[in-house]
Write a structure and sequence with these properties.
By secondary structure, the chain is α/β, with parallel strands linked by helices. It folds into 2 domains: 220 residues, 3-Layer(aba) Sandwich (Rossmann fold); 139 residues, Glycogen Phosphorylase B (Rossmann fold, 3-Layer(aba) Sandwich). The protein has 14 helices and 16 strands. Strands 3-2-1-6-7-8-9 form a 7-stranded parallel beta sheet, sandwiched between helices. Strands 12-13-11-10-14-15-16 form a 7-stranded mixed beta sheet, sandwiched between helices. A two-stranded antiparallel sheet has the order 4-5. Helix 6 links the parallel strand 7 and strand 8. It is globular and about 60 Å long.
Length: 372
C-alpha cells in the first residue's frame, strides 16, 4: 500500500506521530510515498523530523494560531484575521495537496490534524480514502467530558477538529486510556503512538526539572521562578531559533533548542516535567513515570491537560509555578496501566489500517486487469 502523509507541523506532537507511523508502516511492507508538512512561514521544521523521516518532505503554507504579544498563549482574534488575509495562499496549498494525492499514486492519505487536508476533501472530493489521527478527535467522542470553562472556545475547537476530518473514512483518536469506539462519529480509540526511542530510555530520578514550552514567552515565568530558587536545576526546551543551541543562563538554568534525542534523554533522567500540555510529550512523561505540571497555551491544550489529569498524570497551572510541581512530585504514583496500553499501539493501529490494505490491493489488481 502506498501512503501519503499530511502533517500539521506546529509544535512537535504531530511530527513525532508521523515519524512513528512511517516506521510502523515501512516495517510491515507498506510505502510512505511523500510527507506534506503544513506550517506557517515563521516556523522552522525541526532537524529531528528531517533526519528521521525517510520519505520526501514537502512544505505547504497552512493556517496557524498567532501568539499574544508576550508570545505565550494563542490570540484567537488576531489568528482569525491573519488567516483570512492569508486565505489565497491556503487555496493554493489545497490545490497542491490534491495534485500530490493524484501524482504520488497514493492508496491512502493519513492526515495528522492538518486543516487543509479536510478542506481539500470537502471541496475537491479525492477518491483516495483518508484516515485522520490525533488526540483532538477524542474530544468528539460521545462519552468525553470537556472542561467546564471556555465553552465557546471548546465549541470552536471541536468545529475546527471536524473540519480537519471532512471526508475522512475513519478518525483514529489517540487516548490516554481505553474507551469504546464511537461509530456514530467514525471514531476508533487507539493508544498513543510513541517513537521507538521512548521505549529505549532507562528512567532515572535526577535532581533537575525538565520542561518544554511551545511559545518562548513562557520563559519569563521560568526565569522568575529560577530567580527565587536558584538551587534547583532547570533544563527547558523551547522554539526560539534566534538563540544558540544551548543557552546557559547560569549553572542551574539552561535553555535548549528542540532536539528530540536530547529531549528524551533529559526527560528520562529528570525529577519532574513541566510542559505547555502538548499531548505527545505528556504521553512520553507518563510512560517514563514522571510527574507533570501542565500549563496550557490554548483550548486544545486545556483539554489535553484536563484529560491527562483525569488519568493521574499530573496537575494544571496557569504559569510555570514549579513549587506546585515539586510538592506534587513528593507523593506521585505513576499510572501503571498506561505503559501496557501504549505498548499495544502498533497492533491496534495496524488492525485499523488493514482494511485499507485490502482495498488498495483490490484497486491495484483491478487497474492491472484493465491495463492488460
Amino acid at each position: 500500500m502506498r501512503v501519503l502523509f499530511v502533517v500539521q507541523g506546529e509544535g512537535r506532537g504531530h511530527l513525532t506521530q508521523a515519524i512513528s507511523m512511517e516506521k510502523l508502516l515501512r516495517g510491515n511492507g507498506h510505502e510512505v510515498v511523500e510527507v506534506l508538512v503544513g506550517k506557517s512561514e515563521s516556523r522552522r521544521l525541526p532537524g529531528f523530523f528531517i533526519r528521521s523521516i525517510q520519505a520526501p518532505i514537502k512544505h505547504i503554507i497552512s493556517p496557524n494560531f498567532l501568539p499574544t504579544r508576550a508570545n505565550r498563549r494563542a490570540n484567537l482574534s488576531r489568528s482569525v484575521l491573519y488567516n483570512v488575509w492569508k486565505s489565497p495562499e491556503y487555496i493554493e496549498s489545497m490545490c497542491y495537496i490534491r495534485r500530490r494525492i493524484r501524482e504520488t499514486g497514493a492508496d491512502l492519505v493519513i492526515n495528522f490534524y492538518e486543516l487543509l487536508t479536510g478542506l481539500t476533501y470537502f471541496f475537491f472530493r479525492p477518491s483516495v480514502p483518508m484516515v485522520c489521527i490525533g488526540h483532538q478527535y477524542l474530544f468528539l467522542h460521545k462519552e468525553f467530558r470537556m472542561p467546564d470553562k471556555n465553552r465557546c472556545s471548546s465549541f470552536l475547537m471541536n468545529m475546527f477538529t471536524r473540519f480537519t476530518s471532512l471526508g475522512a473514512s475513519r478518525r483514529l483518536a489517540l487516548s490516554f486510556r481505553e474507551m469504546k469506539d464511537d461509530d456514530g462519529h467514525k471514531l476508533s480509540i487507539i493508544p498513543p503512538l510513541l517513537r521507538q526511542e521512548v521505549f529505549e530510555q532507562e528512567p532515572l530520578e535526577g535532581d533537575y526539572i525538565h520542561g518544554y514550552m511551545v511559545n518562548s514567552g513562557f520563559s519569563e515565568y521560568v526565569c522568575r521562578w529560577h530567580g527565587e530558587h536558584p538551587e534547583v536545576p532547570l533544563r527547558f526546551f523551547w522554539d526560539h531559533w534566534e538563540e544558540e543551541p544551548v543557552k546557559k543562563v547560569d549553572d542551574t538554568l539552561w535553555f535548549y533548542q528542540l532536539d528530540d534525542r536530547e529531549f528524551l534523554r533529559q526527560m528520562s533522567g529528570c525529577k519532574a516535567y513541566a510542559s505547555t500540555a502538548g499531548f505527545e510529550s505528556i504521553c512520553e512523561a507518563m510512560y517514563l513515570g514522571k510527574p507533570i505540571l501542565m500549563v496550557p497555551a490554548h483550548i486544545e491544550q486545556e483539554c489535553n491537560a484536563y484529560d491527562a489529569m483525569l488519568s493521574g498524570a499530573g496537575i494544571v497551572d496557569e504559569g510555570f509555578n514549579l513549587d506546585k510541581l515539586l510538592a506534587f512530585a513528593k507523593d506521585f504514583q505513576p499510572n501503571q496501566a498506561f505503559p501496557l496500553w501504549v505498548r499495544s499501539s502498533r497492533h491496534v493501529i495496524l488492525s485499523e489500517l488493514e482494511k485499507y490494505t485490502y482495498k488498495a490491493s483490490y484497486k491495484n489488481l483491478y487497474q492491472g486487469v484493465i491495463g492488460n
